[in-house]
């Protein structure tokens, strides 16, 4: 699904026009980004939770040369799906 398709689907489900829906989605993206940059987490009921995880520094290996490479610690975004979402996806495979 593309962002345009998402806007259209949300617009149809909510009865809002596409311009208002686009502004809402843009605002939601901005709020999620701001919260994650501050190190917080964003729960979405029955969908899951976005949060920031910190990875430790480690030694990796360059696959082309076999040379050891230091990989610095960093922060990355993770998404943990809610049980309701996992169950819905699993049920759709049956």
Description:
The protein has 2 domains: 1-38; 42-94, Irregular (HU Protein, Chain A), CATH 4.10.520.10. 45% of the residues lie in helices and 30% in strands. The chain has helices at 3-14, 18-37, 83-92, and strands at 41-44, 48-55, 58-61, 68-71, 74-81. Strands 1-2-5 form a 3-stranded antiparallel beta sheet. Helix 1 crosses helix 2.
Distance between the termini: 22 Å
CATH homologous superfamily annotation of the largest domain: IHF-like DNA-binding proteins
Strand order of the largest sheet: 1-2-5
The string of secondary-structure elements, in order, is: HHEEEEEH
Helix content: 40-55%
Q: Report the top-level CATH class of the largest domain.
A: Few Secondary Structures
CATH topology of the largest domain: HU Protein, Chain A
Number of helices: 3
The fraction of residues assigned to DSSP E strands is 25-35%
Task: Quickly give the structural class.
Answer: alpha+beta
- Per DSSP E runs of 2 or more residues, the count of β-strands stands at 5
